Amino acid sequence: MAPEKPSYTRSHFRQASSQVPRAQQLLQQAETRLRSGEGGARLRWAPSPRIVLAALIAVVIVAMMAGWAQGKTPSSGLSSTTPSFSATAKAAPGSPPAATGEVLVDVVGKVKKPGVVRLEASARVQDAIKAAGGALPGTDLSGLNLARHLSDGEQLRVGIEENSAPEVGAKSGGAGAAESAGQQAGAGAVAGAGGGKISINEASQQQLEQLPGVGQALAQRIVDYRQSQGRFQNLEDLKNVSGIGEKKYASLAAMIRL
């Protein structure tokens, strides 16, 4: 490491300048002696008083500075490396966290506005349904755990069962067998000359669930109404079933028949 160059301050020059009067006094004494004849022939070889004064001042200043520089040694403990900073920098106030803190959920089924919704990471099933406009009237939410936390990228099926459950309250013996046979006959009627329309008098619960907006619970209520009230006399009688209003009926009218 190269030695540190001495830096001179005003105080150092003031100290050197304080010696100037002493040098002037010595010069005056020498000049007086020379003028009085002391020194004989040497007088003519004497330099100019101003030159002598300047030389003395220079000598004093150089001596002062040299002594000060010798007294100051370069520090060997100086570090040649720059100070290191902490490896873990604090995040600036207001900056977003590493994780987004949000989840995207695809809400499908019996909601007013099906589609992908963006929610907070702490959101639950009920929040996703609310973000999708809420469930349609008559939608059975008993099969959903509304308090369950959501996962990013999941699909939430509202009023739609992954696998159709068997007929609820199936009758035993001959009555149950007769109803099962009637349901199978209804399946043939649905695929027959009805032009793809579903018969609300003959279709089974599973077949009724093929209608848009009709889930397991609503299909079961249609079957229960048919069993308790008899066959539908006209299509608009379907509005007598709980959960089917004017709007729901209007969406089904073109796809059903007696």
TrEMBL record:
Keyword Glycoprotein: no
Keywords: DNA-binding, Membrane, Transmembrane, Transmembrane helix
Gene Ontology CC entries for this record: type II protein secretion system complex
Molecular function via GO: DNA binding
Ranges of compositional bias, category Low complexity: 73-86
Gene3D superfamilies, per database record: AF1531-like domain (1.10.150.280), Outer membrane lipoprotein wza domain like (3.10.560.10)
Gene Ontology biological process terms in this record: DNA repair; protein secretion by the type II secretion system
Record's keyword annotation contains DNA-binding: yes
Transmembrane segments: 51-69
InterPro entries (alphabetical): Competence_ComEA_HhH (IPR004509), Endo/Exo/Phosphatase_dom_1 (IPR051675), Hlx-hairpin-Hlx_DNA-bd_motif (IPR003583), RuvA_2-like (IPR010994), Soluble_ligand-bd (IPR019554)
Helix-hairpin-helix DNA-binding motif class domain location: 206-225, 236-255
Pfam family, one: SLBB
Biased composition (Polar residues): 8-24
Domain of life assignment: Bacteria
Region (Disordered) residue spans: 1-24, 72-99
Protein's name according to its UniProt entry: ComEA family DNA-binding protein
Organism: Varibaculum cambriense
